[in-house]
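Subject: HlyD family secretion protein structure
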Amino acid sequence: MDKKIKKKKWTVGKISSISFGALFVSFILYNFIFADKGSKLNVSAEKINISDVRKGQFREFIPVDGNVMPIKTIRLDAIEGGNVERKYLEGGEMVTKGDTILKLANNNLVQNFVREETQTFRLVNELANTKLSLERNKFELKRRLTALDYDIDAAKDAYERGAKLRDEKVISEQEYLNLKRAYDRLVSNRVIEIESQKFDTKSTEHQIRQTTETLERTRRNLEMIKGNLDNLFIKAPISGSLSSVNVEIGESIMPGQNIGQIDDLDAFKVRATIDEHYIARIYEGLEGTFDFAGETHQLKIYKIYPEVINGLFSVDLKFENELPADIRRGQTLQIKLQLSENIEAVQIPRGSFYQTTGGNWIFVVDESGDFATRRNIRLGRQNPRFYEVIEGLQPGEKVVVSSYDGYEDKDRLVFK
């Protein structure tokens, strides 16, 4: 009789299968729990730039271009109109204050001057004749009063003698009355003569005042027209460089028309254009520096032009110290315009990484130097060389500052 053999539950194959499955599950669990799930990229260490995070003096400034120009430019505008009769000087020449640049011709202005001059002479003669007439009237009054006083004295004597003779019955009452009437008439004539002369004198003096006032107005008009004639000679108001004369002989010029300009070369300023992004941070007194001939020179903003054109606005800066030697009009200066004072700050060098991250994150190099991991950061102010680090980095760490093109979705860079 055959003996029944029990089937073995744990065969070598089964044990091997279970062991392999356990190992596989363990591997999966390990990778799920412990392994780095982030995406990574192998990069060549020679193709990236690594810089140190440092702490030191930080100053925010922006680079701007400035053009050297005269601190004062005087426009030459015609005060009177006319035709260009003569040009004494051309553009590009040096002039001294008072030098004649142009002569204009204006016949109407000349005729007005002649008319006013003639009117002035007429009024002067009229005033002189009126004053002479007043003096003559005064002498005539004295003469007539002298004659009247003589006649009054004679009539008074006759009247007083007639009164005595009437009392003595030598003459009649009628003869006495005739003598009295003759005396009274002469006395009344004297009073009337004085009043008449007062009226004539007052009228003549009023005429003299009117003529004098008219003469003064005419003289002022004459002086004004004479000044206008002088304005036909366009002269240099300051000494400097006559940069342009924009007219030709025979050309008709209107009052107020610009015919050129003079640049004052005794001093210079710098005009710079700045991006409108900074307009709220620019103010009068803001300082800047530029390097010239191996030295650093100071500038200060003294005037701001608020008009924004094509995204730019302008400022004028003056030299704080002595004007640098050999500097010339039209020269372009590279200016560092200081927007803040020096502060102690953590900072990293500027780099192309910013175009990708916007300063919100960066790759920080591990202490081993074998890889770099992505880290969120926050940057603050900046200048042409550094970014200010507000949080996320510590001095002594190293960061990748080169371009992050192709790294946007990576969490780790492995150097090879």
